[in-house]
Amino acid sequence: VTNILKITSGSTPEVADYVDDVYNLIIEAGTHKAPSIKVAEAAKVIENTQRDVNIALINELALIFNKLNIDTEDVLKAAGTKWNFLPYRPGLVGGHCIGVDPYYLTHKAQSIGLHPEIIL
Q: If residue 23 lies in a helix (H) or strand (E), which one and from where to where?
């Protein structure tokens, strides 16, 4: 936990500074002070949604490759030779917020008249 950069924010600039100072006492990797709580929360929702979508994509690809008698691990190893390949593996989504954040984001989008097609 202390080796992962943390996003901080606060309800006022003073609170944001205080929270950031407290986190910097224990987080060795440092912090990124977001300009608002909304930005900090949106960043976390994006992180979790991106992870969820990428794991779902790899799981779906693994099903396709399995039906085509292609070894998914061999495909991932070959794809991993590219600098921009994200090394996700088939499996379950872990953590209490990763699986629900895409639904929060979708709900918020729908409340403003948007209907995301990739997130879920």
A: helix 13-26
How many CB atoms neighbour CB 23 within 10 A? 18
Read off the CATH number of the domain in which 87 is found. 1.10.1040
What pTM was computed for the model?
0.86
Determine the Cα–Cα distance for residues 114 and 99; give it in Å rounded to an integer. Answer: 20
Q: Residues with Cβ < 8 Å from 105, sequence gap 6 or more?
A: 45, 49, 116, 119
Domain range for 97 is 36-120
Going by C-alpha positions, the residue among 118, 68, 59, 63 that lies closest to residue 88 is 59
Structure tokens at 120: 């879920």
Place of tokens 């912090």: 31
Based on the fold, state whether residues 85 and 117 are members of the same structural domain: yes
Same structural domain, 6 and 43:
no
Residues 18 and 52 in one domain: no
pLDDT tens digits, 22-75: 999 999 999 999 999 999 999 999 999 999 999 999 999 999 999 999 999 999
- Residues forming the active site: 97
